[in-house]
């Protein structure tokens, strides 16, 4: 008998005591970049998954049976991620995989998961993960295309029409740069300067100077993630550039403000999630209960601030365990079908409704336009 579970994270954990047929153990897998250059993303993701599994099992598991998490640290290496995905499926016999901290590791994992027909929920942002739609692959973060649209929507609302971009050449930055170029014309905005930097670059003043000196430029957009955007932000401040500056959701965390410096980051806008402004959400906001529950649990468990990237793992776990609770069996095909049937599920990132044509399940309303003020996140009116 199928059972629909509650739509908040901790309530879901408590409610998962009934649903699917009893099993000796339900194994789920994860390949996360807990170390390496993407550790600032992967470390909170790994901690989140460990926390939620612990909470779920303490509350009785799924139909009285424990959930076992088999997790590997791929260090951000796509080849290791591919190896671990194969091991999870062939040796560990997991029924689903969460992970792919970066686009590169995600693409490696999904190739293995799709071939084996095992559900996979990615934690990376690039649009090519779910476009075109692949039967067994889903993801929780907004796409880079959506981030471009949200940024240009705000730039348009402010009456600006001439924009410069400075983009990282990493997988995320290059993908978002391409997506921004595809949609910028839809907003009546012209790209008048286009510069790039390598992830290992320690100074981007030359590129920013070229952008600043471009005639008629009115705003700057920085597609990128990792330390690069923090360096760009410091250089932007050092050059005293007096133009609106937009970052991407790839740096939507307190860590970005710390790396860039609150003074340099002052006034920067970016599209982010409700999790970053939990204290500013209206009481009737449908995401508030799940955001508050996750924030409280994570910060109590880790003694560190909650962030967007751990939220991606939270939502993937919520989607998967809700599907397990509804499934008639824990075979991968049944789980896949129930993931795709997810409707109106409030997570920390947005409210998910999947369809056969949409394995992201979010629209632009899931993004909140945020601005950094006095070293903290604020909502743009």
From TrEMBL:
First and last residue of the signal peptide: 1-24
Keywords associated with the record: Amino-acid transport, Signal, Transport
Biological processes per GO annotation: amino acid transport
Domain Leucine-binding protein: start-end pairs: 25-361
Family under the similarity heading: Belongs to the leucine-binding protein family.
Protein's recorded name: ABC transporter substrate-binding protein
């Amino acid at each position: 008998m199928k059972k629909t579970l509650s739509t908040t994270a901790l309530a879901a954990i408590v409610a998962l005591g009934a649903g699917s047929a009893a099993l000796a153990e339900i194994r789920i897998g994860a390949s996360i970049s807990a170390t390496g250059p993407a550790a600032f993303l992967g470390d909170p993701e790994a901690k989140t998954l460990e926390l939620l599994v612990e909470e779920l099992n303490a509350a009785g598991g799924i139909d009285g049976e424990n959930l076992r998490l088999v997790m590997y640290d791929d260090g951000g290496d796509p080849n290791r991620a591919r190896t671990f995905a194969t091991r999870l499926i062939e040796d560990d016999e997991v029924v689903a995989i969460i992970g792919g901290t970066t686009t590169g590791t995600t693409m490696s994992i999904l190739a293995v998961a799709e071939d084996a027909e095992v559900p996979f929920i990615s934690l990376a942002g690039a649009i090519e993960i779910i476009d075109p739609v692949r039967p067994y692959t889903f993801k929780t973060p907004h796409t880079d295309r959506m981030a471009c649209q949200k940024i240009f929507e705000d730039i348009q609302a402010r009456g600006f029409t001439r924009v410069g971009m400075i983009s990282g050449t990493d997988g995320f930055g290059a993908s978002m740069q391409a997506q921004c170029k595809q949609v910028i014309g839809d907003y009546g905005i012209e790209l008048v300067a286009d510069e790039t930097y390598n992830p290992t670059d320690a100074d981007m003043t030359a590129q920013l100077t070229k952008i600043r000196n471009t005639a008629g430029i009115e705003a700057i957009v920085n597609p990128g993630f990792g330390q690069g955007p923090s360096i760009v932000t410091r250089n932007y401040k050092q050059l005293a550039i007096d133009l609106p500056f937009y970052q991407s959701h790839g740096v939507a965390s307190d860590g970005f403000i710390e790396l860039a410096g609150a003074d340099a980051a002052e006034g920067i806008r970016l599209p982010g999630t409700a999790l970053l402004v939990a204290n500013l959400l209206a009481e009737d906001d449908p995401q508030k209960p799940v955001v508050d529950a996750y924030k409280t649990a994570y910060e109590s468990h880790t003694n560190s601030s909650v962030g967007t990237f751990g939220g991606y793992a939270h939502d993937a776990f919520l989607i998967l365990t809700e599907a397990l609770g509804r499934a008639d069996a824990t075979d991968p095909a049944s789980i896949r079908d129930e993931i795709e049937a997810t409707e109106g599920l409030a997570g920390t990132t947005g409210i998910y409704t999947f369809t056969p044509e949409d394995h992201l399940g979010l629209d632009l309303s899931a993004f909140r336009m945020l601005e950094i003020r006095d070293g903290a996140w604020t909502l743009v009116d």
